[in-house]
Amino acid sequence: MKPNRIREIWAKGGCALNAFLSIPSPFAAEIMAAQGYDGLIVDLQHGVIDYMTAVGMFQAMQGNPVAPMARVEWLDPVAIMKILDAGAYGVICPMVNTADDAARLVSYARYPPHGVRSFGPGRAVFSAGADYGQRAEDEIVVLAMIETAEAMENLDAIAATPGLDGLYIGPVDLTLALTGRKYRIGFDREEPEMIEAIQRVLAAAHGAGKRAALHCGSMEYALRGKEWGFDMVTVSNDVRLMAGAAAASVQAFRTGQTKSFDGSY
Question: Which InterPro entries does the record cross-reference, listed alphabetically (predicted)?
Answer without folding.
Answer: Aldolase/citrate-lyase_domain, HpcH-HpaI_aldolase, Pyrv/PenolPyrv_kinase-like_dom, Pyrv_kinase-like_dom_sf
